[in-house]
């Protein structure tokens, strides 16, 4: 994936440097297009602020001369515009990443940014569904669709999310060639990192039932999950379907398509699943991330320790 030129109102030397940063994100770091777009919006907001703050479009020398007070002024301005602490923290993360790149390239050196603290973000704990709620969601998934093939599609997709722990984007990125029809499937997740995920018979059956009813013909590289008009299914449509199911089942607002992935991990852990295995199945780089997703409590961690550590046995 190649990066599009970054078009900011800045001096030519800074514009060229930021275009190189975007290319590095895409080709070296292998960030997704969505991530690069989000970084671009954050950086555009910062550079727009600087143009007003400094009285002229910034260049590389201007970035090198910024003080901690300048960065805090930016945070204060964005906070005054109603940006949440999470969004402010992400904006600062974008700045740190861009400045690190410019520093490594020998273009900008500014130690002041390191002295500015990012806003603290409240630690959020995912809310998985209970086992019976997850099963009811799969059972009722077809009730909000009049077309049989659309009903089969929703059942297949929700069964895949809960049965294999996929992210919604990962499921919607699948092609017909990659349809889960065997015992396992290779998923390309964040950072283009690949992992192998086992496929349960109930998942294969749901996918097969959907494909049998699918009215659109397609090539092997065509999207697996289609919308009503035969195009790749939009994640917003899936989220809307989940919102329609919530009142039918009495589910809270936290019952989203992603909650099915949370439930996959939590229910595996409750059934005695190994943390490292669950980490691999979810495609997490850090075990601490897996612990958040599975809502592990201290009692469960103690039990894992007692069962696994050689000195804790006997």
From TrEMBL:
Q: Which GO terms describe its biological process?
A: cell division; chromosome segregation; DNA transposition
- Localization per record: Cytoplasm
Q: Name one GO molecular function term.
A: DNA binding
Relate the assembly described in the record. Forms a cyclic heterotetrameric complex composed of two molecules of XerC and two molecules of XerD.
Q: Which residues form the active site?
A: 167, 190, 258, 261, 284, 293
**Stored PANTHER family:** PHAGE INTEGRASE-RELATED, TYROSINE RECOMBINASE XERD
Could you tell me the keywords of this UniProt record? Cell cycle, Cell division, Chromosome partition, Cytoplasm, DNA integration, DNA recombination, DNA-binding
- Provenance organism: Magnetospirillum fulvum
What are the residue boundaries of the Core-binding (CB) domain, all occurrences included? 12-103
**Which gene specifies this protein's sequence?**
xerC
Report the function annotation for this chain: Site-specific tyrosine recombinase, which acts by catalyzing the cutting and rejoining of the recombining DNA molecules. The XerC-XerD complex is essential to convert dimers of the bacterial chromosome into monomers to permit their segregation at cell division. It also contributes to the segregational stability of plasmids.
- Keyword DNA-binding in the entry? The reply is yes
Q: What is this protein called?
A: Tyrosine recombinase XerC
Family, per the entry? Belongs to the 'phage' integrase family. XerC subfamily.
Task: Name one cellular component (GO) term.
Answer: cytoplasm
Q: Which InterPro entries match?
A: CB, DNA_brk_join_enz, Integrase-like_cat_sf, Integrase_catalytic, Integrase_recombinase_N, Integrase_SAM-like_N, Tyrosine_recombinase_XerC/XerD, Tyrosine_recombinase_XerCD
Which Gene3D superfamilies does the entry link to?
1.10.150.130, Intergrase catalytic core
- Residues covered by the Tyr recombinase domain: 124-306
């Amino acid at each position: 994936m190649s990066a599009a030129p970054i078009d900011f109102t800045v001096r030519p030397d800074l514009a060229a440097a930021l275009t190189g940063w975007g290319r590095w994100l895409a080709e070296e770091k292998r960030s997704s297009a969505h991530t690069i777009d989000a970084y671009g919006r954050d950086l555009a907001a910062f550079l727009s602020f600087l143009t007003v703050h400094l009285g002229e479009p910034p260049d590389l020398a201007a970035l090198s001369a910024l003080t901690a007070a300048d960065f805090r002024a930016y945070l204060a301005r964005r906070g005054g515009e109603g940006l949440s602490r999470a969004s402010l923290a992400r904006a600062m993360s974008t700045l740190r990443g861009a400045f690190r790149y410019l520093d490594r390239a020998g273009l900008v050196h500014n130690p002041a940014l390191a002295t500015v603290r990012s806003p603290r973000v409240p630690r959020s704990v995912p809310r998985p569904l209970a086992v019976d709620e997850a099963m009811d969601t799969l059972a009722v998934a077809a009730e909000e669709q009049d077309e049989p093939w659309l009903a089969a599609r929703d059942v297949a997709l929700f069964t895949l999310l809960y049965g294999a722990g996929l992210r919604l984007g990962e499921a919607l990125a699948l092609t017909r060639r990659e349809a889960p029809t065997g015992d396992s499937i290779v998923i390309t997740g964040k950072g283009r990192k690949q992992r192998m995920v086992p496929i349960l018979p109930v998942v294969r059956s749901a996918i097969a039932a959907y494909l049998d009813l699918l009215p659109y013909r397609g090539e092997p590289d065509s999207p697996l999950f289609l919308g009503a008009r035969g195009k790749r299914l939009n994640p917003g449509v899936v989220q809307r379907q989940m919102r329609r199911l919530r009142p039918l089942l009495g589910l809270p607002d936290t019952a989203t398509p992603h909650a099915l992935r949370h439930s996959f991990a939590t229910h595996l852990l409750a059934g005695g699943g190994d943390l490292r295995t669950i980490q691999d199945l979810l495609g997490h780089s850090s075990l601490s991330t897996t612990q958040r997703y599975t809502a592990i409590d201290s009692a469960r961690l103690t039990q894992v320790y007692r069962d696994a550590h050689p000195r804790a046995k006997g």
